[in-house]
């Protein structure tokens, strides 16, 4: 059980868990702000990237894992590239998403639904089947008309097939997913 102070939400093991999961030393972050300055999505975040890093150092588990920023991160790695201390910030954000998901703290459900639809498609077909993935996403979210205007263009360019592509060793991909479920 993590040690948490009821007063300020401090969790003494949070930093250690994130560092172990990401294999990064967050103590090297000195809040220069390069990660936030370079982030193309920081305008949409509820908490800027450098503030997320500081909150990690301060053990603010619930606030970090409840933030929208960790779900809106595109993992473009601009923050990682710009970090003068070579901290893989994008990897940390990925670890935070996994932690939040395990704890049921999903601040942006549509992002989680898209992620789930993508993984289900890869598990079933060995690679993403775009039309099936989008049908799954629409079914989960009810967002029937979102980006519907893009489908004819994608179909016209051969980018959106009506049948999944076959791959060699599809059963190997399914075994990877099965191994993951066994570890959970």
TrEMBL record:
Looking up Gene3D superfamilies in the UniProt record yields:
Alpha-helical ferredoxin
User: What species is this protein from?
Assistant: Desulfovibrio psychrotolerans
Q: What is this protein called?
A: Heterodisulfide reductase subunit C
Q: Which UniProt keywords apply?
A: 4Fe-4S, Iron, Iron-sulfur, Metal-binding, Oxidoreductase
This entry's Gene Ontology molecular function terms read: 4 iron, 4 sulfur cluster binding; metal ion binding; oxidoreductase activity
Gene behind this protein: hdrC
Q: Name one GO cellular component term.
A: plasma membrane
Pfam families for this protein: Fer4_8
Asked if the keyword Metal-binding belongs to this entry, the reply reads yes
Q: Which residues form the 4Fe-4S ferredoxin-type domain?
A: 20-50
């Amino acid at each position: 059980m993590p040690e948490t102070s009821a007063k300020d939400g401090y969790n003494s093991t949070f930093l250690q868990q994130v560092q172990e999961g990401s294999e990064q030393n967050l103590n090297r972050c000195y809040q220069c702000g390069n990660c936030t300055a370079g982030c193309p999505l920081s305008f949409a975040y509820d908490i800027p990237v450098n503030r997320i890093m500081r909150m990690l150092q301060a053990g603010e588990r619930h606030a970090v894992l409840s933030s929208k920023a960790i779900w809106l991160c595109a993992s473009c790695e601009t923050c990682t590239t710009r970090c003068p201390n070579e901290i893989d910030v994008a990897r940390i954000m990925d670890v935070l998403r996994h932690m939040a998901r395990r704890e049921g703290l999903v601040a942006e459900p549509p992002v989680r639904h898209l992620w789930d639809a993508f993984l289900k498609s890869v598990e079933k077909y060995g690679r993403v089947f775009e039309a099936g993935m989008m049908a799954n996403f629409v079914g989960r979210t009810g967002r029937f008309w979102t980006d519907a205007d893009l489908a004819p263009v994608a179909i016209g360019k051969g980018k959106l097939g009506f049948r999944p592509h076959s791959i060699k060793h599809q059963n190997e991909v399914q075994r990877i997913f099965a191994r993951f479920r066994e570890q959970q």
